[in-house]
Design a protein that fits this description.
By secondary structure, this protein is an all-alpha fold. It is built from 12 helices and no strands. It folds into 2 domains: 51 residues, no CATH class; 225 residues, no CATH class.
């Protein structure tokens, strides 16, 4: 046993707790010296070099994974938007056709109402003539010579001939009343059709909007494209192929420049216009129907005749108002199609490069 070991043993016997700690520290020191002797400077450099390669490769893999994830996220966020917009465009086209038909029906009702008013005016004048002829026939309210001369000149006939033409005048009046009745029925039917199309138009327009889920998808697509654009910067630094990513970014970044709200604004305009058209059309239909009932038409008192005339005039005005509302809704629907097409063009372009 060496002198140093003997001294250490003696120290441990005299101071057992302190001696244990000393031996422990000496053992650690000896292991450190042996490890230091085994590792040469070349070995240390080789270890550092290998560790650097591992870290570099790890960083490349991490960034490549970020680019792949960004591409995958863009695909998931952006694909399918064009299908949703295609449905919106189709429904806007259908609604344009519906309100266009309603406009045509409204125009028809207005024209028929005007023709009816002309027939009613002609019938009113003929009724006055028949009344005068009856008065002449009955010998009541004998006219003056000047009135007789004027009356005969107007009809280019004699007193006796005029009396004989009462039957002809009554036949003509009956024909005019029949035409007026038919025209009134046509007007009522056309206004009812106009009202129905406006109701349908209001329902379609109210539902044909960019809903929250589609808006969220477009917003997510914008965010995904931005993230993909940012990912290409690091990928370019890493030497990766970013041509696919750049193509997608170029196509899909146009979402940042489109106005989605215009689609809903036009849908709201079409809906409001259709509601106005439906309301005026409904009131006009009821008014026209009341004006054309036999009870209203056959009451020849002055008050009822004036009431019938007022109802017919109101029906014609309401038919015109409903027509204008339908035409306005048609314009809103047509412009909505235009707005949808602008967004759909971007969606189709974006989806095309993703697929």
């Amino acid at each position: 046993m060496s002198k140093i070991s003997f001294i250490n043993i003696k120290f441990v016997i005299q101071f057992p707790q302190k001696g244990t700690r000393v031996f422990h520290r000496m053992a650690i020191f000896k292991k450190w010296r042996k490890a230091r002797e085994r590792i040469s400077p070349a070995g240390i450099y080789r270890t550092l070099f290998l560790s650097g390669l591992i870290l570099f490769n790890f960083s490349i893999n991490v960034f490549a994974s970020d680019l792949d994830n960004a591409l995958r996220a863009t695909y998931m966020a952006c694909v399918g938007i064009d299908d949703e917009l295609a449905d919106l465009k189709k429904m806007a086209g259908i609604n344009t056709a519906v309100t266009g038909v309603g406009t045509g029906l409204g125009v028809g009702a207005t024209v028929v109402g005007v023709v009816k008013a002309s027939k009613d005016k002609e019938a009113e004048e003929l009724e006055k003539l028949i009344k005068e002829l009856h008065e002449l026939e009955d010998g009541k309210d004998e006219p003056s010579d000047a009135e007789v001369t004027s009356f005969l000149k107007e009809f280019d006939s004699s007193y006796d001939t005029a009396i004989k033409d009462i039957t002809t005048a009554q036949t003509k009046l009956d024909e005019l009343n029949k035409q007026s009745k038919n025209l009134g029925n046509w007007r009522t039917g056309l206004m009812a059709g106009n009202t129905a199309t406006n109701v349908a138009g209001a329902i379609i327009a109210g539902n044909n909007k960019v809903k929250d889920d589609l808006q969220a998808q477009i917003d997510n697509c914008r965010a995904a494209v931005k993230n993909l654009r940012d990912s290409t910067k690091q990928a370019r630094f890493n030497g990766e192929d970013i041509s696919e990513a750049n193509t997608i970014v170029d196509a899909c970044q146009e979402y940042d420049y489109i106005d989605i709200s215009s689609i809903n604004k036009r849908a709201k305009g079409a809906m409001v216009s259709s509601i106005v058209g439906a309301t005026t059309g409904l009131v006009g239909t009821v008014t026209s129907a009341v004006a054309n009932t036999d009870k209203t038409r056959n009451d020849n008192t002055d008050a009822e005749k004036q009431k019938e005339k007022n109802l017919n005039n109101a029906s014609n005005v309401l038919a015109g108002a409903s027509t204008v509302a339908s035409a306005t809704a048609t314009i809103f629907n047509a412009t909505q199609i235009s707005a949808i097409k602008k967004v759909a063009a971007v969606a189709e372009k974006c989806t095309g490069v993703l697929k």
